């Protein structure tokens, strides 16, 4: 346990999404390690579902005034950061996303006139999407360069940030993690039965926010080919803009009985535990937290050679890496794995081992603590 107890503010998007999940889990684990945590967000983070005496929540409220065409969220957040930083004497503010959170943190620090240290974690969407919009590049670079420390969730994202934004700043990779107390294999055989899935059927799972970049249609197309050879069901977990396109494709391919649309779910660890394989076939993905969650439950993954995915899924060890859109290869690798028991068992064990050895929460949380300590000590 770190000897120094810090007062740490955390700002993130509190709604469903990997960055919000990581920010919240990190806050909880830091609290368990004795730090005082102050979430400064627009609503209570959705994963913050346990009571901690040393976690506080400060709501950012955005008032609607007729004179403003858009509600001034960024100014409201900066003001709240200033208020909390001053009153609570925060040592560190850890923000997730350069835009708008790092920029708001810098403004809030100036308003408060304190020695607050700002740590920014890049999660990908701000860089991969906004980095291509030249009107925002300067703002992202400003947020990065004026943070005291910057981390990114994969080596690929570090590289992409330098390529697209060219900041004059060191960016360190700190990988994502899962709470191993939650994500591990549990007995979910009853659930399989309740979903009406026969014992001999394999279960393939995909979890995402159904944005176009997640290429959920490729998941369905690959599943259609797997289904021709192996009795199986596809679980689609999550919701988002592409859902109607995907459900149309499922009908066209006559897979209605074999694809289960489960919508947004909370206890995903039980769904992973009843699954045999995860497909993550995105065209943009800085890390792929859902792959790590599945692997922690012993589920091998097939992912695309995109962004940080190959840093999580190691080809032919705990899963397979395929080219984006190469449905034939994705399906044939899935069939090979699902029909070869020894190979499957070794991939499944390797998946759990990878999470334990490379992405263990205690190891990752210590890396963040080390960054905070160095900043506060002025090293
Ligand atoms: O993938 C999304 O659309 C959500 C986004 C978010 O902000 O939560 O996910 C990003 O951050 C996650 C946590 O670090 C990563 O696991 C995802 O790979 C990353 N998404 C993209 O890069 C597209």
Automatic annotation (TrEMBL):
Domain annotation Glycosyl transferase family: ranges: 191-352
BP terms from Gene Ontology: bacillithiol biosynthetic process
Superkingdom to which the source organism belongs: Bacteria
InterPro entries noted in UniProt: Glyco_trans_1, Glyco_trans_4-like_N, Glycosyltransferase_grp1, Thiol_BshA
Pfam families referenced in this protein's UniProt entry, alphabetically: Glyco_transf_4, Glycos_transf_1
Xref: SUPFAM superfamilies: UDP-Glycosyltransferase/glycogen phosphorylase
GO MF terms, alphabetically ordered: glycosyltransferase activity
Glycosyltransferase subfamily 4-like N-terminal domain residues: 16-180
Protein name stated in the entry: N-acetyl-alpha-D-glucosaminyl L-malate synthase
Annotated organism of origin: Heyndrickxia ginsengihumi
């Amino acid at each position: 346990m770190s000897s120094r107890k810090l007062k740490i503010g955390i700002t993130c998007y509190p709604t469903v999404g990997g960055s919000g999940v990581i920010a919240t889990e990190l806050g909880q684990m830091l609290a368990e390690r004795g730090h005082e945590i102050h979430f400064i967000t627009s609503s209570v983070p959705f994963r913050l579902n346990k009571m901690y005496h040393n976690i506080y929540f400060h709501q950012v409220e955005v008032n609607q005034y007729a004179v403003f065409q858009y509600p001034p969220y960024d100014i409201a957040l900066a003001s709240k950061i200033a208020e909390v930083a001053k009153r609570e004497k925060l040592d560190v503010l850890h923000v997730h996303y350069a835009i708008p959170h790092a920029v708001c943190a810098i403004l809030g620090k100036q308003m408060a006139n304190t020695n607050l240290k700002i740590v920014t974690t890049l999660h990908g969407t701000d860089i991969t999407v906004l980095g291509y919009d030249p009107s925002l590049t300067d703002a992202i670079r400003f947020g990065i360069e004026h943070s005291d420390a910057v981390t990114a969730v994969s080596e690929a994202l570090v590289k992409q940030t330098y390529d697209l934004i060219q900041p004059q700043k060191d960016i360190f990779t700190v990988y994502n993690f899962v709470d191993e107390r939650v994500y591990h294999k549990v007995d979910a055989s009853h659930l399989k039965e309740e979903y009406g899935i026969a014992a001999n059927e394999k279960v393939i799972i995909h979890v995402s926010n159904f944005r176009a970049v997640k290429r959920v249609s490729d998941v369905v197309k690959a599943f259609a080919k797997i289904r021709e050879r192996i009795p199986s069901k596809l679980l689609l977990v999550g919701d988002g803009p592409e859902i109607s396109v995907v459900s149309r494709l499922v009908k066209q391919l006559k897979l209605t009985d074999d694809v289960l649309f489960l919508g947004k779910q909370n206890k995903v660890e039980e769904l992973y535990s009843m699954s045999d394989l995860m497909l993550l076939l995105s065209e943009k993905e800085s890390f792929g937290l859902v792959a790590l969650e599945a692997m922690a439950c012993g589920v091998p993954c097939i992912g695309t050679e995109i962004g940080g995915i190959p840093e999580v899924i190691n080809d032919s060890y705990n899963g397979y890496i395929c080219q984006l859109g190469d449905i034939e290869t994705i399906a044939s690798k899935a069939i090979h794995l699902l029909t070869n028991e020894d190979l499957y068992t070794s991939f499944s064990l390797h998946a759990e081992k990878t999470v334990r050895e490379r992405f263990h929460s205690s190891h990752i949380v210590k890396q963040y603590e080390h960054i905070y300590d160095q900043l506060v000590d002025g090293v």
